[in-house]
Design a protein that fits this description.
- The protein is of the alpha+beta class.
- It has a domain at about 65-170: Cytochrome C3 (Alpha-Beta Complex), CATH 3.90.10.
- It has six helices and five strands, in the order H-H-H-E-E-H-H-H-E-E-E.
- It has helices at about 10-20, 35, 55-60, 105-110, 130-135, 160, and strands at about 85-90, 100-105, 160-165, 165-170, 170.
- The strands form two sheets. It has a three-stranded antiparallel β-sheet. The chain has a two-stranded antiparallel ribbon with strand order 4-5.
- The N and C termini lie far apart (about 60 Å).
């Protein structure tokens, strides 16, 4: 971009040209996504305590309107018609790892039931043999988490799901 008719001396014109070099004709900054990994629109969305996008708050505040299916196809039902506000307890096999509280409402408010049922999750409680290694590989919760929702692979994200301390004889295990 060339500044025409400026009343600047050479050094000021060079600074102005350097400033405008990354701007396109509409005034938006063009970025190389490979350079910093940030998507400009995402910077405007609310963040959680770890600096990741808080998709639930963004949806609740009306900033986004999520598609009801992962692949973008039209669902057989509208998510609002199949809203489930229940919280499901998923017990972990490891005695020192807190159990998972799955907030069904947050998920069913954003996506249709068919996105998760009957695959990868069977609807009957206890009928899914979920393993963290498989989640890391993109199965189960990993179908969305790490792609369109917060990643599961960062250590600090464990406490987002694993929140229910196990109890022994009515008292919590010490952690």
């Amino acid at each position: 971009m060339r500044v025409i008719g400026s009343q600047c001396d050479a050094s000021q014109e060079a600074m102005l040209e350097a400033l405008l070099k990354d701007m396109n004709v509409y005034g938006y900054v063009e970025r190389e996504l490979e350079s910093d990994g940030k998507v400009p629109a995402f910077e405007l969305l609310p963040k959680d305590r770890f600096g990741l996008i808080n998709w639930t708050k963004a949806e609740a505040d009306g900033l986004i309107s999520p598609r009801s299916t992962i692949d973008g196809s039209a669902p057989d039902e509208e998510p609002a018609e199949s809203f489930f506000e229940n919280i499901i307890l998923l017990q972990t096999a490891v005695h020192f790892m807190p159990d998972v509280l799955f907030p069904h409402g947050i998920h069913s408010n954003m996506i249709s039931c068919e996105s998760c049922h009957p695959e990868p999750f069977k609807e009957k409680n206890g009928s899914n043999d979920i393993k963290m290694t498989e989640i890391f590989e993109g199965k189960w919760c990993g179908k969305c988490h790490g792609k369109v929702a917060f990643p599961v692979t960062r250590f600090f994200n464990c406490r987002r799901c694993h929140v229910m301390r196990k109890t022994a004889f009515g008292k919590p295990y010490s952690q």
